[in-house]
Write a structure and sequence with these properties.
It contains 16 helices and 19 strands. The protein is an alpha/beta fold and 497 residues long. It has one domain: TIM Barrel. Helix 12 packs parallel to helix 14. Keywords: Alkaloid metabolism, Cytoplasm, Glycosidase, Hydrolase.
């Protein structure tokens, strides 16, 4: 399960959505040996998603949400990955039922086309996104989605977190297909961390541009929908104000967010990447540049946390992760950028970073329409707790509240064009390499119950009070006492600076 929430500029209210991506069709994850035990659980999750579809839509409606974000499994529609292998009508029927049920309940579908699940047949045939052949196959997949669902789906996301797919799958080997350079000695399945991430991102961008061009020339004029892309976004703060660290911070942003936003707005990769990656960074043809520039109606940002950045010149090993010549850290002067809810977690709570990120997007990329397509907090799974204990997640409620406040600051004070906000997630779900060991949901899922029964957490009840009662979320409701109480995990300068 994968989910999300929405703050409308005019109303200053909030909305949420959910994404279903568990599926039993064979895709790349099912062949990655290091994930075999987790894949079994993915398949169980897929079965329970089928069983719980009506219940989950009812939960969405009862919360007062008017949007539901879900992804469509490529191999569920095209079992062999392309048109030649035939279309699975049962898959079409499954998603038609979800879309129709959502609309019958007054809920708008937000549909993601690709969330890391490359059909295994295409991986076997030509290496998936390592080959430019993927562009035509992805375009054909999208063509089927537009033709079958586009009369009702009005919001499309081509790719979810292409940076994560390239970095985790081809630079550090943590996600499928688990590729990286041998020198890293982390049991990868082959690969080259200095070249493959750039190739994979290049082909993802070309696939995105091809799909957007198809939609705009064949479907958008009569379906009247919108199409965009959802990007992973960490906010980076300089470790201190030295020129070296300020420039390093710019490079960190270029190598993550700019890797995608610069081609989407100018048709070129950032100059800082071109200088450091050299001929390992592919080039766009003039035709490809034309297709890329402004190939979005909105940009999705998935924001969870922030980091400090130090200059780190002359890396010793060739890899995308070293090319930026930066050191990314979570502490400055022995103080973390934000506290964590799980010891050792990557997610340090820093709401101010989201506000800064939105302002940066406005200034650098001409204020595009932005949806916060993911934002949420993890907690450790603890089966020793009772359900009544486990649903007490006030820290998550505060996390969501404080990020909403910072979004509203960006909207009201800086006129950033935010169309909506999606919380991650509607319910606890399978979290990739972490499996079921952490919980992101505002609904508790009982994994020890074969039915995966759902229970609302305190954050869900609070969220419903905002949505149903239309309680205004504004900076003014963050009292000094509330800020003081939260200093145990939120920096004191989060709200006003």
């Amino acid at each position: 399960m994968m989910q999300s929430v929405n703050v409308m500029k005019q109303k200053s209210t909030v909305e949420v959505s959910q994404k279903i991506s568990c599926g039993v069709q064979e895709h790349l994850l099912t062949r990655l040996k290091v994930h075999i035990m987790k894949v079994v659980k993915v398949q169980v999750c897929g079965i329970t998603s089928l069983m719980h579809t009506q219940e989950d839509i009812k939960i969405t409606k009862d919360l007062g949400l008017d949007a539901y974000r879900f992804s469509i499994s490529w191999s569920r529609i095209l079992p062999r990955g392309n048109r030649n292998g035939g279309v699975n009508q049962e898959g079409i029927d499954y998603y038609n039922n979800i879309i129709n049920d959502l609309l019958a309940n007054g809920i708008q579908p937000f549909v993601t086309m690709f969330h890391f699940n490359v059909p295994q047949a295409l991986e076997d045939a030509y290496g998936g996104f390592l080959s430019s052949r993927i562009v035509a196959d992805f375009r054909d997949f999208a063509d089927i989605l537009f033709s079958k669902f586009g009369d009702r789906v009005k919001y499309w996301i081509t790719l979810n977190e292409p940076w994560t797919f390239s970095n985790h799958g081809y630079a550090i080997g943590r996600f499928a297909p688990g590729r990286c350079s041998e020198w890293q000695q982390i049991n990868c399945t082959g690969g080259n961390s200095g070249t493959e991430p750039y190739i994979v991102t290049h082909n993802q961008l070309l696939a995105h541009a091809a799909v957007v061009h198809l939609y705009r020339t064949k479907y958008q004029i009569w379906q009247k929908g919108k199409i965009g892309i959802a990007l992973a976004a960490i906010w980076f703060e300089p470790y201190n104000s030295t020129d070296e660290n300020l420039m390093a911070t710019d490079r960190a942003l270029d190598f993550m967010l700019g890797w995608f936003m610069q081609p989407l707005t100018s048709g070129q990769y950032p100059q800082s990447m071109r200088v450091r990656a050299g001929n390992r960074l592919p080039n766009f043809s003039n035709t490809e540049r034309d297709l890329l520039i402004q190939s979005f109606d909105f940009i999705g940002l998935n924001y969870y946390t922030s980091r400090y950045v130090l200059d780190k010149p002359n890396p010793s090993s060739l890899s995308y992760i070293n090319d930026s010549e930066v050191d990314i850290v979570v502490e400055r002067d022995n103080k973390p950028i934000g506290e964590v809810s799980v010891i050792g977690s990557w997610l340090h709570i820093y709401p101010k970073g989201l506000r800064e990120l939105l302002n940066y997007m406005k200034m650098k990329y001409n204020n595009p329409t932005i949806y916060i397509t993911e934002n949420g907090l993890n907690e450790a799974r603890n089966d020793s707790m009772t359900i009544l204990e486990a649903i007490k997640d006030d820290i998550r409620k505060d996390y969501i509240h404080d990020h909403l406040c910072c979004i509203l600051q960006a909207i009201e004070q800086f006129e950033v064009n935010v169309g909506g906000y999606f919380v991650w997630s509607l319910m606890d779900n399978f979290e990739w390499a972490f499996g079921y060991s952490i919980r992101f949901g505002i609904h508790f899922v009982d994994y020890n119950d074969e039915l995966f029964t759902r229970y609302p957490k305190h954050s869900a009840l609070w969220y419903k009070s905002i949505l149903v009662k239309k309680i205004k979320i504004a900076q003014s409701i963050v009292s000094n006492d509330a800020k003081k109480d939260r200093q145990k995990y939120v920096p004191s300068n989060v709200f006003y600076q």
